[in-house]
């Protein structure tokens, strides 16, 4: 007699964490050096402020700070070891190697599998899909997934179309192997891309394409560039289509969605997206007014802050969707789990890693 099939393994969210740099940059502060105003920025983007890192602070620093918070939330005792670290980022510490091994080392997780995901603002959703696949295949049991960005390092300070939009931040979740039917189980997914739109969201310089072109980089090639009007409509169209697809796969009706958690690109995009999908705007979780567009960090940061604000309750149905450079897009769903312990607000000072904490304890 054939052996019964092994039970399905799902990736279950069991912890969250986030980190914002302490330096808050208001619209008025940017208006002092740019031809812009608080009213102009708020009207077009919904952003009132963003956070930038100080010199010497890296993407891995932000990622490790958020990761430490998520690990402590998922397992305060520190007994359950994470075997995989995934970092979604557009702004790695170096072109080579990846940032994830550095983050793992800073958290005392050397030896864990560690790699980066590069899908710009869709990076966190792609990372969720990757972590879910690893857990389902039995290649991982417990995964730390971090979205972390230091966009201030790639913004042209003289370009008001981009420098007013983006901010630095990190958000993290811990995923464990579990039952597909339990609260916190992630999936299904809908993912897609269109490389014909590569020039709509890009940093032209620094890669093999520019280095092998036989010409020196132009001054602006090292900065992030975006075709805002074209991106607006592409973002709404692809996120709405992807959201409907994943709801169909999950067997959810639109009116069953308690919270829409879209990539925090622009408040007008988020409002138009909610309208197109048919989710009431008041069910859309947004934090863009105070943090700006934090790219791959935006969804996990929004989740952690919404949890701290008491907006998320066990059993709530969440629709997550994102759009970014590539072009890339993706969506997934989950039912919010019963996370132990009180929710806390986003810290603005890096917590000690577990290895640092143990080291300090030994010297007391």
From TrEMBL:
Domain Beta-ketoacyl-[acyl-carrier-protein] synthase III N-terminal: 115-195
Pathway terms, separated by semicolons: Lipid metabolism; fatty acid biosynthesis
Primary location recorded for the protein, binned into one broad class: cytoplasm
Enzyme Commission number(s): 2.3.1.180
Cited PANTHER family: 3-OXOACYL-[ACYL-CARRIER-PROTEIN] SYNTHASE 3, BETA-KETOACYL-[ACYL-CARRIER-PROTEIN] SYNTHASE III
NCBIfam families: fabH, PRK09352.1
Protein name per its UniProtKB record: Beta-ketoacyl-[acyl-carrier-protein] synthase III
């Amino acid at each position: 007699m054939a052996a019964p099939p092994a039970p399905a393994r799902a990736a279950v969210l069991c912890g969250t964490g986030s980190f914002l740099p302490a330096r808050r940059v208001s619209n008025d502060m940017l208006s002092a050096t740019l031809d812009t105003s608080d009213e102009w920025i708020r009207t077009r983007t919904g952003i009132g402020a963003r956070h930038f890192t100080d010199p010497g602070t890296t993407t891995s620093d932000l990622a490790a700070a958020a990761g430490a918070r998520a690990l402590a939330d998922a397992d305060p005792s520190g007994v359950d070891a994470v075997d995989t670290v995934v970092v979604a980022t557009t702004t790695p510490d170096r072109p080579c190697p990846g940032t994830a091994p550095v983050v793992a080392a800073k958290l005392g997780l050397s030896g864990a599998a560690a790699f980066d995901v590069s899908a710009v603002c869709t990076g966190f959703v792609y990372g969720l899909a990757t972590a879910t696949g690893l857990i389902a295949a039995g290649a991982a049991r417990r995964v730390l997934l971090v979205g972390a960005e230091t966009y201030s390092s790639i913004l042209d300070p003289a370009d008001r179309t981009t420098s007013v939009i983006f901010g630095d931040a990190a958000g993290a979740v811990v995923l464990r192997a579990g039952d597909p039917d339990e609260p916190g189980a992630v999936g299904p997914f809908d993912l897609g891309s269109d490389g014909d739109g590569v020039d709509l969201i890009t940093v032209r310089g620094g890669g093999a394409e520019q280095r092998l072109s036989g010409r020196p980089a132009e001054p602006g090639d090292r900065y992030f560039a975006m075709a805002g009007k074209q991106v607006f409509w592409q973002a709404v169209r692809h996120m709405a289509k992807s959201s409907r697809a994943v709801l169909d796969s999950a067997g959810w009706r639109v009116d069953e969605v308690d919270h829409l958690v879209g990539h925090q690109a622009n408040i007008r995009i988020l409002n138009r997206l909610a309208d197109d999908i048919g989710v009431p705007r008041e069910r859309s979780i947004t934090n863009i007014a105070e943090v700006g567009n934090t790219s791959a960090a935006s969804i996990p940061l929004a989740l952690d802050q919404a949890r701290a604000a008491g907006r998320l309750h066990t059993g709530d149905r969440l629709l997550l969707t994102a759009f970014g450079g590539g072009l890339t897009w993706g969506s997934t769903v989950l039912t919010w789990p019963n996370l132990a312990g009180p929710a806390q607000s986003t810290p603005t000072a890096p917590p000690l890693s577990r290895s640092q904490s143990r080291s300090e304890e030994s010297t007391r």
